[in-house]
Amino acid sequence: MEPNASASVGLEAELDSEAPQRGKLSGHTRRNFIAGIAAAGVSTAATAVANRGNSLFGENALAAGGGRNGFASFEAIAPSPDDRFNVPKGYRADILISWNDTFRDGNGQALRYGFNNDFLAYFPIDGSKEGLIFVNHEYPDPFFLHGYKGSGAKTEAQVQEEKDSVGNAILHVKRRPNGVYRIVQGSDYNRRVYGDRPGLTFTGPLAGTTGVGDSARGSLGNCSGGITPWGTALSCEENYEGYGQDTSAGGYGWDQYGGQPGDEEYDPVTHAKYGWVCEHDPFDPDSTGRKHTALGRFRHENTAFRHEPGKKFVLYMGDDKTNEGVYKFVSSRRFKRGDRANNRRILTEGQLYIARWEPEGRRRFATKGDVEPITDTEGTGTWVEVTDEQLRDTAALIRAAVGTEEYNTHFATNRPEDVEVGPDGSVYIALTNNSTVNDSHGSVRRLREAGNDPEATSFRWSDFAAGGPQDQGGAGFSSPDNLVFDSENNVWVVTDISSSALNSDNEYGYHANNAIFMVPTRGENRGVAFRFANGPVEAECTGPYFSPDERSLFVNIQHPGELTAGEEDSVFGIERTYTSWWPEGNRTAEENPSLPHPSTVVITKDPRGEGERSIPPARRRA
Ligand code: FEO
Ligand code: CA
Ligand code: CA
Ligand code: CA
Question: Using CA positions, which residue lies closest to atom 3 of ligand 1?
Answer without folding.
Answer: 223
